Amino acid sequence: MQADDARYLKRKYKGGSLDVHPTEKALVVQYEVEATILGETGDPMLGERKECQKIIRLKSLNSNTDIASLARKVVEECRLISPSRLPEVEQLLFYLQNRKKSAEKKEKKQIKPRDLTPFEGIELDEEANINSIDDYVELLYEDIPEKIRGATLILHLARNPDNLEELLQNETALGALARVLREDWKQSVDLATTIIYVFFCFSSFSQFHGLITHYKIGALCMSIIEHELKRYDLWQDELQKKKKADILSNLKKEYEKALKKYHGLLTKQEQLLRVALYLLLNLSEDTRTELKMRNKNIVHLLVKTLDRDSEELLVLVVSFLKKLSIFLENKNDMGLDPLNIGKLVTLIRIECSKVQSGAVLLILLSATLNMQSVSVHSWLVCVCVSGDEAQRQIAMCILYHISMDDRFKSMFAYTDCIPQVMKMLFDCVEERIDAELISFCINLAANKRNAQIMCEGHGLKMLMKRALKLKDPLMMKMIRNISQHDGPSKNLFIDYVGDLAAQIGLKEEEEFVIECLGTLSNLTIPDLDWELVLKEYNLVPYLKDHLKPGSAEDDLILEVVIMIGTVSMDDSCAVMLAKSGIIPALIELLNAQQEDDEFVCQIVYVFYQMVFHQATRDVIIKETQAPAYLIDLMHDKNAEIRKVCDNTLDIIAEYDVEWGKKIQSEKFRWHNSQWLEMVENRQMDEAEPFMYGDDGEPFLQNGDILERPDLFYSADGIIPADGAISPEFFTDFQNGDLLGPQGFPSSSLTDGYGQMGVTPARPATAYGFRPDEQFYYGYTASR
After folding, report:
1. Which residue of 156, 258, 483, 534 is most buried, as measured by CB atoms within 10 A?
2. Which UniProt keywords apply (predicted)?
């Protein structure tokens, strides 16, 4: 069809079905539009049909709406509805009107969690009037029922914020209320609740807090709460006694009667506690007032209230504890021991989001402070793991905080936590697992027993499969932590050495390669043929290239050094690496990273492994200056570096006489540096007078023998008197059975390869832990 031929566009509407909107006050009209393009002669050239819908919103529809009139108006204004369908429209509107009414009732019932107002006032058969306030005050001087009536009338006035200013001016009324509360609160719970409620109305506004402080209502509320909690304990004891007595006498009437009375008293008491605690919560806006509450043990009282069943009261208590926990001192006062944490776990199961969130948050806060009490109770861990989905993230945070402490990692092995966590890992459909979950698993894997449980069945196989498929560095970090433990779990990695080595040569994400290298470096397995692995996957060029300073990130270069240290334990691998020129590359890297203790420690460890093998030992001693670098590092400030250097130099000294003398001389010079300096630099004072003893032997006047260095030397010429002291002098006095000719361990203490009987493990890092040991939540991987 040519564009010039199209002259007209014709639309045709055809009405369809009619129905009500599922959620709104609206009708939904389905219709069909047929669009036709006509040519110059009026013949149709192109046509298209499309189904559409129109929503007619009825904002004015309510229970008083005239359905017939509204239906006629809808039909008149909407051309898509035929007038013949008027009865159908009326029927739909009638249905919509009734449906919406029932839905509103249901919605209100769901949203309203019982009573949104803080407390329920006592009903009256008369209306309170501010002009009659003096009459109400007079009632406060009568008997208890009249006092309750007078206090209730004043309460109705106080609940209106407009009356608070005028009530504030009436000191007689407020003074009478405070006096009655102080004198009669034990006689009537209703009276105490009502009067405290009056002051609570004032506490809702910060400008009236001075009034409450003036009448010491806060301190009185603390006393009332403490007394009521003691009464609650007495009620519980009495109820248990009657229950036992009724069981013995096979009569339940007395117990049921006591139980009914108990519930009635409990309801009134919880209302009193609620109004008193709410007033204190308002007053705690001022940190000075909060400190006074702490001194009166408010935290203990709140924790003691956690075992109540009233959701309204629990919301208030948990909110109060959350506010107080901002300060470390209050958190310490909480003393969330296993019993109290059990109360919080019970609150998580309550079908109230505010109580659940507050309880879980309090457990999270306590996890940072009192992890022992959390971890001892394994059932808490299980509840957190298998809890509601909405609470799972916070529950994982709790578990993560516990797992950060090495003392408590092993406790997870005695719960169902690890199998459940592994199931959560494998059930995760996302490419990247939640940070909280994988962080928790990484910390767990740092414990040997936990790692063994993780490997049970096909655990390690599933982890490796997921990590290699998704190239997940965090999952691989978890596997790396598992691989660091000696025992059966490490031997399982033999099947995956090829898969891990294959990742190194590929251009994978650097963080993922770092974890693969770290995992391979942990595999100190005697049966593992490292030479075959290096050749098959052509890893030597990769290792050598990544030893160049600046060739990659420092973390990757460090893992390459650690990897070389692991494979150098094998004689054939050490020879292969030496021939490739890796030793000079290590020395160059040592020069570049001499300020980094981590690099220095691991490079020296590589030298330590290589000096065990004849071929590499000759290269290190005769073709490089590595021993000179090691001598310089003998006295490094880092203890781990000193330790590895000493072990390496001891072996070098045993196999090379020349270097042995240099090493021994340097050790002697360093050990006796102060003495040597004094001997060589101090001049003899020949004019100094001598004093003689009874035996005729001369000694110094001041008794300082160091004033006469010549007295150290005997006449046999073993030590020359010129101060040129040779350390070989001291080897003549060593025990020759245990020491070699250079004063170092003899070959009798070594194995067939000249290696000491006990080979030190890979050195700890400069920070006191191995890099694959602990994982902190701050780990940032590209996700």
Report:
1. 483
2. Coiled coil
Query: Do 31 and 93 touch, CB atoms closer than 8 A?
Result: no
Mean per-residue pLDDT, 642-668: 87
Share of the chain above pLDDT 70, in %: 72
Furthest C-alpha separation in the chain: 151
pLDDT category, 116, cuts 50, 70, 90?
A: very low
Pinpoint the alpha helices (H) of 309-414. Answer: 311-324, 328-334, 338-348, 353-367, 371-376, 378-385, 389-403, 406-409
Rounded to the nearest 5 percent, the helix, strand and coil shares of the chain are 65, 5, 30
Q: How far apart are CA 146 and CA 685, in angstroms?
A: 108
pTM for this entry:
0.57
Residue 714 has pLDDT above 50, yes or no: no
Position 566 pLDDT exceeds 70: yes
DSSP class per residue in 729-768: HHHTTS-TTTB-TTSSB-GGGB-TTS-BSSPPPSPPPTTS
DSSP state of 620: I
Smallest Cα–Cα separation from 286: which of 225, 197, 202, 210?
Answer: 210
Q: Which residues 6+ apart lie within 8 Å of 539 measured at CB? A: 501, 504, 505, 533
Cα(306)–Cα(336) distance, integer angstroms: 11
DSSP lists the bridge partners of residue 619 as none
Residues comprising the chain, all counted: 783
Q: Is 11 left (phi over 0), alpha (psi -120 to 50) or beta?
A: beta
pLDDT at 91: 86
Closest CA to 777 of 555, 530, 477: 477
Helix (H) or strand (E) holding 35: strand 26-38
Q: Is 581 left (phi over 0), alpha (psi -120 to 50) or beta?
A: left
Residue 208's closest CA among 164, 178, 153? 164
Phi then psi for residue 302, to 5 deg, are: -70, -45
Cβ-based neighbour number of residue 609 at 10 Å: 22
Instruction: Return phi, psi of residue 15, to 5°.
Output: -65, 150
Which pair of tokens denotes residue 579? 């021939």
Hey, what amino acid is at 196? Answer: I
The token duo for 692 is 């003689």
Show the DSSP H helices in 14-130 as ranges.
Answer: 67-77, 86-111
Cα 742 versus chain centre, distance: 54
Question: Using alpha carbons only, what angle is made at residue 672 by residues 666 and 674, rounded to the nearest 5 degrees?
Answer: 120
For residue 182, is pLDDT > 90? yes
Signed CA dihedral, 503, 504, 508, 512: sign only: positive
Residue 369: how many CB atoms within 10 A of its CB?
Answer: 17
Instruction: Tell me the C-alpha to C-alpha distance, in Å, between residue 187 and each of 143, 168, 239, 295.
Output: 11, 27, 22, 27
For residue 34, how many other CB atoms are within 10 A of its CB? 13
What CA–CA distance (Å, rounded) separates 656 from 660? 6
Cα–Cα separations (whole angstroms), residue 709 to 633, 665, 686, 718, 719: 31, 21, 12, 15, 12
Residues 6 or more apart from 626 whose CB is under 8 A from it?
583, 587, 607, 620
- Give, as one character, the DSSP assignment of residue 673: H
| DSSP secondary structure letters along 271-290 | HHHHHHHHHHHHHTTSHHHH
Residue 439: CB partners within 8 Å, gap ≥ 6? 400, 474, 775, 776, 777, 779
Sign, CA torsion 409/414/415/420: positive
H or E, element range at 577: helix 571-579
